Amino acid sequence: MTTTAGKTITLTTAQAIVKYLQNQWIEIDGQRVRLCGGGFGIFGHGNVTCLGEALYEVQDDLPLYRGQNEQSMGFAAAAYAKYHLRRRFMLCTASAGPGTANLITSSALAMANRLPMLMLCGDNFATRLPDPVLQQVEHFNNPTLGVTDAFKSVTRYWDRITHPAQILQSLPQAIGTMLDPADCGPAFIGLPQDVQGWVYEYPVSFFEPKVHRVRSIIPDPVELEAAAELLKTAKRPLIIAGGGVQYGDAIDTLRHFADEHQIPVVETIAGRANLRWDYPLNCGPLGVTGSDSANALADKADVVLCVGTRLQDFTTGSWTVFGETTQLIKINPGRHDALKHQGLEVIAGAKESLPALSQLLGEYVSPPGWLDMAASEREAWDVIRAANTDIKSGPNRYAQAIGVVNALCDEGDRVVTAAGGLPAEVTANWRTLQVSTVDVEFGFSCMGYEIAGGWGARIAQSEQEKQNDTIVFVGDGSYLLMNSDIYSAVITDKKLIILVLDNGGFAVINKLQTGKGNASFNNLFKDTPTATNQLGVDFEQHAQSMGAQTERVADANEMQAAFQRAKESDRTYVIVMDVDPYDGWTNEGHAWWEVGTPAVSNRQEVLDAHAETEAGRDRQRKGV
Fold first, then answer.
1. Would you say residue 359 lies in a domain?
2. pLDDT value at 5 more than 60
C-alpha cells in the first residue's frame, strides 16, 4: 500500500515508475492519449514480485500483454511504435538473466530503425549480499558488469537504478530521448531486484499529468538559402522520400512541395507508403530492392533532395545509384544523417523545412523534358510490375501472392514483412493504397519480426475507431525462427492474416550465394548436408495447433478465394503457398550492392563473380 504525507507520497521504485508512466500523455489529432500504450511482459524472479505488483494495480490503464518470447515482445513494441509514427511507445519487461538477454536483438532493431521502446528489466542486487544469484553472469574483475550492460551499444538511453531517487532524473530523460526527432530510439532501465522494492518519499508533483509533444526543429536560414540556390540550378531534380517523412508528419507537406515544383519523387524502403501508387510524381522505390524507374532517374539526376532518410546502402546501391556529378541536399533533424556523404545539409524537420524552401524557390519547376522522362520510366515500371504479379504465367512467385493481396485488400489494411526475399518483393511490387500502411522492416532486416510485428501493429490498429486488417508476409525460414505470436494474436483476439510463402529454406541467401559463384550450401534444406531427413514442415497443422484457421493453396489463383475467406473470418488466418526458390523472384530494378567476395578460390565461378563485383565498384561514390 502507498501512503501520502504532505506533498510527498511513499512508493516503491517499481510503483513510482509505473505511476509516472500512467500520467504521461500526448495529443494526437486533437485527442489526448496515454504516451505509453501499455506493455509486453514475461515475468521471472527478477521482475515479478515488485514490478509485476505495480503493473497489476494499473492494468486497466496500462494493459500488459503476456509475450511468448522476449525478443518477439520487443519486435511487437517496435511495430506498435512504428504504427503510431513514434508518438506512442510500449514498455517491455523481462527478468534478470536470459529473459533480459533475449531483448538485445529487438533493442538493436529499434535502434537501427530509430524507434521508441522502453525496457524495464531485472538486474543484479544492488547490495550484492546474495551474489551470485540465479542467472547472474559474473565478471571476475568487474563486479559492476552484467547482462544489462550489453544494451549500451543498442540503446539511445541507458541507466541502472541503484537508488529510488534516481528515477526522478532518469524517467524524464528516457522519455525525452524516445520522443526526440533526432535521437529517437530505445531506452533501457536496469532495475536491481532489491531496489525495485525499496521505498522513497517521492514529490507528488512528479506524478502530475504531463502532455508531451514532439519537438519541431526549425531550419537554419543560411542552410536553407544554400539548399535553395543549389536546387534552383537543377535541370534534373529528384526527391528521395524516407521514413522520416512519415515520422515528421510531413506527407502532405512533401506532396504539396512536389506538386508546386513538379519534382519527381522516389521512395526508400522505410519511406514506402509516403505516397499512393497513383500519385503522378511517384516514380517508385529506389535502390537494391527498388525499381528500374527510380534507379534510372537517380542515375540521371543532377540534384537530389534527400528528405528524412538515413541513406542506407540498399537505398543508395552502396552509393552507386547516383551519377558522378550528382549533388545531394539532405533535410533531416538528425545531424548524423544530414552530414552523410558530403553535399549540403539542412538539419531540421521536413515539415518545417519544405514550405520555407518552397518559398525560396519561388516559381521554379522541373524542365518539361525531365518530367517526360519520369513519366515514361514510371509507365515502363508499371508494365514490369503487372508482368511480375500476373498469376497466369510462370512458376509460383512471391510477386503473384503480393499482387493477389494487393488487389483484394482494403485501403486501410496494414502490410508487415521483414528480412529474406520478401522486403524486396513487397517494396518493388506493392501498390500503396493508403499512406502509412506499409511496414517493411529492413533497417535491421531481422528475421522473426514479421508475425511479432504484425501482432504489435494489430494492437495499435485495434485502438482506432475503424478496424482494418493486418496482413503479414513471411517466409518459411522466418516462420520457423519465430512463430509463437500466432498464439499471442489468437489469445488476445488480435486477428492477423498471415501469408506463409514456403521456398524450402533460406532461398534469398542461397540466391546470393550461388549468384556469387558459390555452390548451394546450407541454405536450402535440400542442400544442407547434415539434414539427412528431408521432412517438410506442415505449417497448416502447426498454426492450427496455436488456434489459427489455416489452409494451403496450390497457387495464386487459389489464393484469391482463400484470401477472401481470411478477410471474412474473425480469427487469425494462415494461408500457405509454395514458391519457387530459383525462379520465384523479381529480377528487375536491382541496383549494385557491395558484398565481400573471395579474391582467391578453387572455383572459377567465384573468381568471375569477384571480378564482376569489383567492376561494379567503379561507380561507387567515395564520400565519407
1. yes
2. no
